[in-house]
Specification:
globular, alpha/beta, eight-stranded parallel beta sheet, 40% helix, TIM Barrel, 12 helices, three-stranded antiparallel beta sheet, 336 residues
Length: 336
């Protein structure tokens, strides 16, 4: 069976120190440790240490071959979104990142597909770069965050970008970042363990309750990490919508459960029972294998959870491992 990993992250091997160009201490810069590792720095603090597999396509291909992965879908690391920056400055960084992803895809078209990043703090800048990503760089779409400087995805500016994505036939991959409540999660890696699932649930609910998904029925949108906490709280969400429509149904009176199966999720839930539940809720044709490669919260051997589930029919596994990803990505990736 073909395996397509929808959720992977990549960085260029280097980029300019934007502190020197634009000022400020929030830009991410890369500090080399040795030829095979580097440190992502924000100001004088280390954000994350990364290895060669974060920037070297051949290392990635070798890792893919070891696990039988045919293709990775590349997107940037969310901390690079830089929604806090001036739009022109964030656009400059987006173009560096997008040009790099497009170059990797051009060099290895059978092994990689790409999703760009856009400066969501300015819809006009974001739409312009989205158009460049899809029309000039031949990327399948874009990756966006679950919020834009604390503004949820029901914001009118975000909606304008999503309208453009639907019109362009561009895929939209939503990844949690800048997690809510992180001031209470200073220990135990809780922003990644608790904050991310909650952040993703908030993003989905914002799009359902506001009517964004109702207004954009042809938008191909996928939420990372199996939709976070959303699928597992759908009963509570629907009950609240029904019993307190004065609070929940003020912008959209459609039952939230009716949207299950109308957006995509990746398979990264780390638990066979959780994946079975997702299949039951949204269907195999809306779940795509994703690993979060090359980071430690990802699946070490992408697709292994699916492959080891003996109760899944071969056709279901085939759909999860590649079929759904192909549909989500659209015509930018050949079926074979």
């Amino acid at each position: 069976m073909r395996k397509i990993d929808l959720h992977t992250h990549i960085l260029p091997p280097k980029w300019p120190d934007l502190r020197e160009r634009f000022g400020g201490d929030r830009w991410v810069r890369l500090e080399e440790i040795d030829p095979c590792s580097a440190r992502m720095m924000i100001g004088d603090k280390s954000f994350r240490e990364i290895k060669q597999n974060c920037w070297d396509p051949q290392v990635r291909i070798n890792d893919c071959d070891a696990c039988g992965v045919d293709m990775q879908v590349l997107s940037t690391v969310p901390v690079m979104f830089s929604y806090w920056a001036q739009p022109d400055h964030a656009l400059h960084l987006s173009q560096i990142l997008n040009d790099h992803i497009a170059d990797v895809v051009r060099k290895y078209p059978t092994r990689f597909a790409g999703l760009g990043t856009v400066p969501m703090q300015s819809p006009s800048h974001a739409i312009k770069e989205l158009e460049r990503c899809t029309r000039d760089l031949n990327l399948a779409g874009i990756e966006i965050g679950t919020n834009v400087n604390g503004v949820n995805l029901d914001d009118p500016g975000v909606f304008d970008v999503l309208v453009a994505a639907q019109e362009l036939g561009a895929a939209v991959f939503v990844h949690p970042w800048e997690m809510l409540g992180k001031d209470r999660m200073s220990k135990y890696w809780l922003p990644w363990l608790v904050g991310m699932p909650a952040e993703t649930a908030l993003a989905i609910c914002s799009m359902i309750f506001s009517g964004v998904l109702e207004k954009l029925p042809k938008l191909r949108i996928c939420f990372a990490h199996g939709g976070g906490a959303f699928p597992f709280t759908i009963g509570r969400i629907c009950h609240g919508h029904k019993t307190r429509p004065d609070l929940c149904a003020v912008d959209n009176d459609v039952d939230p459960r009716s949207y299950l199966g109308k957006f995509y999720l990746d398979s990264l839930v780390h638990d066979a029972d959780a994946l079975r539940y997702l299949i039951q809720q949204v269907g195999e044709d809306r779940i795509a294998m994703g690993s979060d490669y090359p980071f430690p919260l990802g699946e070490e051997c992408p697709g292994q959870l699916i492959e080891q589930m003996t109760d899944l029919a071969p056709a279901t596994k085939d759909r999860l491992l590649s079929g759904t990803a192909l549909e989500f990505l659209g015509a930018t990736v050949p079926a074979r």
